[in-house]
Amino acid sequence: MAEEPSTQGNYMKNRPAIKTAFWKDASLPSVQLGGFLSKTASLALRREIAKLSFSRDDDPINHCYAKAPLPPKLKTLFSSAKVLDFMSFIIRKKVRRIDAKMFRFDAGDYALRHEEGAQESRFDIVFDIEGLAAGAGGSVIFVDGSGLYHAIAPSTDALTIVKRKRGVQRFVQYHNHYAAGHHLVLGTLRVDVK
Amino acid sequence: MALHEWIKAVYLDDKKILQLQRRFQKARPFEHLALPNFFVEEKIADVLIALSSESFERKESDLFACSQTKDLVSSQSKTLVAFRAFLSSRAFCFYLESISGVRIKSGVIDMAGTIYGDTDHLLCHDDKLEGRSIAYMIYFTSLKKKDGGALCLYESRNGRPTRIVKRIMPQANMFAFFKVAPVSFHQVDEVLQDVQRIAISGWFHG
User: According to DSSP H, which parts of B113-197 are helical?
Assistant: First the structure.
């Protein structure tokens, strides 16, 4: 079994402040935790990702990207009691599991918004592995068609938790010719319905 | 409104129209044409000058990034008003109908100016919307392959786009158009250099 990568200790210690930050914007509760993993864990994860075998998935009217199975270190992290408990505390709901997928966006890649996942309220996670240079595109953007526009700009080793209300759609902005090899983990927190 | 005032004589000959009709019908992956040096030079030069005085707004979404004018129906420019009146005239709509075999309603046209700069793009879509019959583009700048910005046409299978099989590089004074259909999947390649891809584009309605 893969060893659980360690997260930055201060995030675990500052849960109340993170929870407050998360719920601050009622229209789209969210919080971005930059440098989520310890430096050692982040490097180890990147080494693991470099060994993954990505396969192209091009469906031009919906998306163009490469995908791969979640690396073992992330699988272990996302199923650890510590992380599930942390997420549960932030979102005020019991998180049973995290369903996540690993993607690589190269120059020219994107994922358009679609109805899937917008029919009901849900909690998304976006884990950006290495970020991108400014101006290269690649933000993860949440919109509701009536003015809500929230962009998560590419950022190294950043975990973002977002509460999507019903009707809010997500898309991954076009990666332009200044972008290369942007690894993103996109997922959903599976919670107890109460 | 006389066609020859705006369109070069070479495109108005009956034989040429028949030839264009055949080319349009045979065009793959879907019916389209790209006609270089189409408009009378002095006229199209005036249109470009008038267009450059319009206000372009930055537009970005999941599908595109570019700068665009409002619909030119609201333009105060005499030149643009005249150009719009020509494109939507009975004579020009009949000319386009003759080539495309697609029924076109005169007097109704969507028309906006666009500028694509470095990194701007329009991703794959089909343009299908109630009433649209022909999509058209009039280019004012010429781009080289290395600049990007080509109009790309997709082949499709089972109603879904599969791969780009044709790239049309914009050339100043080119008039390009295609029949809007459930499979008219197309995109504008990302502009890869610090160049401006200037066009007027929109739709004729049926």
Answer: none
Other Cβ atoms within 10 Å of B205 Cβ, number: 21
CA distance B116 to B72: 18
Report the DSSP beta bridge partners of residue B7.
B39
* Residue B65: partners with Cβ closer than 8 Å, 6 or more residues away: A174, B59, B119, B120, B121
Write the residue in B63, B119, B154 that is nearest to A176 by C-beta.
B119
Q: Residue B167 maps to which CATH number?
A: 2.60.120.620
Burial of A127 (0-12, 13-18, 19+ CB in 10 A): buried
Domain extent listing, chain A? 9-191
Q: How far apart are CA A140 and CA A163, in angstroms?
A: 14
What ipTM describes this predicted complex?
A: 0.93
Contacts of B76 (CB under 8 A, 6+ apart): none
- Within its chain, how far is the Cα of A29 from the centroid? 14
Phi, psi dihedral angles at A160 (to 5 degrees): -120, 135
Q: Domain A9-191 classified CATH 3.40.190.10?
A: no
Give the A:B interface size as CB pairs under 8 Å: 39
CB atoms within 10 A of CB B189: 22
Round to whole Å and give the CA distance between B27 and B21. 10
Contact status of A147 with chain B (Cβ, < 8 Å): no
Range of the domain at B32: 3-205
Buried b (16+ CB within 10 A) or exposed e, B108-130: ebbbbbbbbbbbbbbbbbbeeee
Indicate whether this model's pTM tops 0.90: yes
Q: How far is B174 from chain A (nearest CA, A)?
A: 26
Q: Provide the domain count of chain B.
A: 1
- Taking the CA of residue B125 and the nearest CA in chain A, the distance in Å comes to 6
pLDDT tens track for B84-134 = 999 999 999 999 999 999 999 999 999 999 999 999 999 999 888 888 999
